[in-house]
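Proteins fold reproducibly. Take a sample protein:
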Amino acid sequence: MIVGIHGIRCYRYLARAGTVELAGQALAAEWTAALGLPPDPRTVHAAYYSQLLHLGTTQGADEPEQLPPGAQRLLVDWVSALGAPAEVTMGPGTLPVRQAAGWLAERYGTAARRFAVLFCREVDTYISDRNSPRRAAVREEVHRVLSERRPRVVVAHSLGSVVAYEALWHHPVELDLLVTLGSPLGMPHVVFERLSLGEGNEEHKGLRPPKVARWVNIADIGDMVAVPRDLPSRFPGIDAHYDVSLGLVASHKATRYLALPELARELGPLLPAG
């Protein structure tokens, strides 16, 4: 079995389906199709956690100035890591966050601005406080699913790769393969320094989680979330890394990552025959 751990913008599955269980089933079905596998719920299961990070929406929620202070700082640090000049990321008040969002739109397109706001809000909700009940609840939910399903493989996308990495250190589970897709694990100041591996594990940051036999990372060359794209430079525990090209519009889309031949080759030996 494969357990999928999703990234941001997945609350919509719950909004459509009505229950957490049905939301997870819908997400698993979408991932199964993207992987090109037969529609069998015993093949792919989703560790769905989006409801645990959902804060509700307010008018103007898509505006960078409406982000909480921590998420604004996260956006500025992220843009700095992407190579924005200092004049974009410095200034009084909310000027840097407005300039950072504008710089993203100019470099990656207008849709990137809205995506960045959503990304920063959800990532900040998870990672701003290493002791927050929400963060612990997300890890516990992932651990519950892994303990119940006992998969051979975990495939984790975007923020899900951060959740998976932390969960597998806090509660080690035997896996043949961990795959991270479009991962921000190594993003300086935004994620890397804030990772929580649990008591006694902090010195192991960057290593493969215990009980995981193999770790594969895949990053699109234009994915603005996968920073740095050369994740093994910060995570020597990665056994194989693939640079791929999904195209600018789909450079972070989970289903495009899931359809890659590189991923199919890694999963092939671990899937049931026939």
In short: The first helix runs from residue 11 to 17. The chain has two domains: 2-52+131-270, 64-127. DSSP finds ten helices and six strands in the chain. The chain has a mean pLDDT of 90.
